[in-house]
Amino acid sequence: MNETLLKYLPEHAVKPVFDLIVANEVHLKIVNERVTRHGDYRKGPSGKHEITVNASLNKYRFLITLVHEISHLVAFEKFGRHIKPHGQEWKYTFQRLMVPFIRPEIFPSQLLPLLARHFKNPAASSDTDATLSLALKQFDQHNDKNYIFELPYGSVFRIHNGKIFRKGALRTKRYECVEISSGRMYLFNPNAEVEVLPNQK
Predict the structure, then answer these.
(1) Cα–Cα distances in Å, from 117 out to 92, 95, 96?
(2) What percent of the chain has pLDDT over 70?
(3) Helix, strand, coil fractions of the chain, as percent rounded to 5
(4) Do the Cβ atoms of 97 and 70 come closer than 8 Å?
(5) What would you measure as the largest C-alpha separation in the chain, in angstroms?
(6) Residue 144: which pLDDT band, with cuts at 50, 70 and 90?
(7) pTM across the whole model
(8) Phi and psi torsions of 66, nearest 5°
(9) Which residues, including other chains, have CB under 8 Å from residue 148's CB and lie 6 or more apart?
């Protein structure tokens, strides 16, 4: 197990993560990329705690995602199943489990202040923290994707299901984008990852 974890995690995080997995009886599955989420947790029919994490994540994002999912398990076990998935109990648990990892042996120094700030009030996804998301992205191995907020107005882009859109104006917190084939308007999170296409008139 430790050899496997070493492929996906920063070296100094392997033992404490392994201890968390054992202590919480986690059945960890590392899977090929799913587009919609980095990882998830569920209690299987047999009562096993099943956590899946995308194999394609860089080591730092993998660590944050895995601890995020273990925090769901720990919060549910401690506070009961009626709590909100990303409510105060989960935030408190995520902070408590993540803080021991926020140190220079594990994360690059430029990420430490961003992580410290993020974990004062962790969001449901690190992707909603644009600064942290961009900082983590630089450690991805081969990324031909862009975030919507980086694209110039009027850019044409493709999303994971093949649909093609043109970027419009920012409305409150999301961008209005028109689907080219139907002319319908959709709202996009600024941190949605998309593939930029050569401009089509």
Answers:
(1) 14, 11, 14
(2) 95
(3) 40, 20, 40
(4) yes
(5) 57
(6) low
(7) 0.74
(8) -65, -45
(9) 157, 167, 175, 177, 188, 189, 190, 191, 192, 194
